[in-house]
Structure formats: C-alpha cells, structure tokens
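Sanity check

After download, print the first record. It should look like this:
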Amino acid sequence: IFCYFDKYSKIEFITLLKKYQSIYNFSIILTINNLEDSIFSDRLIVIDSGSILLDGAPENIFKEEKLLKLVGLNVPINYELYSKLRLYDLIEGSSFDIDDMVNELCK
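Expected structure tokens:
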C-alpha cells in the first residue's frame, strides 16, 4: 500500500490512521517487507519461514541488524541516522523522523 505514497502522504496517512486508532481503539496490522515503512510502528514482529524471529519495539528490533540482514531486511536509514546522532549525543529526542531530527539538531 505504501509504495504508492510519497513521504509526506505516507506520514499524513499514518497520522490519520493513528488518530482513528486512538479514538476507536482498534489495532492496525501491516504486512510489509520494507522496514522503512515500519518506523511509525509501536511493535514489530519479524517472521521468517513461518517462525517468529523477533518481536518488540522498533528500536529494539532495529538493534538486531545482523539477524535482520540474514533474513533479507535492512535497518531503515532513519534509524541508522538516529542511532549515530544519539551515540554522539547530538540529539535527545526519540523520533526516527528526519524532520524531527533536523529540528532537534537546529536547537
């Protein structure tokens, strides 16, 4: 579904989904094969050959880069940038959004 959206339309769509999720208290389940689309998720489950390999918060899943690569997945570039900026104490926020990281750097 997300392959047809540009970055800002994708964010707008996800923001709208999350708004309705909080109002109507329902779960959103997405099946994806590109972790770039998962950075807005609260929880990720990585499945390979019918078995659950990883289950948890995106930040914890993305730390398992070697295992992700073994099953053909790449850590989102946003997370790589976020983790480097956090490593050098350049940002304090917890958002993987590029615009949020830029705003944090400009403070």
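If your output differs, re-run the checksum step. Summary of this record's structure: Residues 17 and 28 are 8 Å apart (CA to CA).
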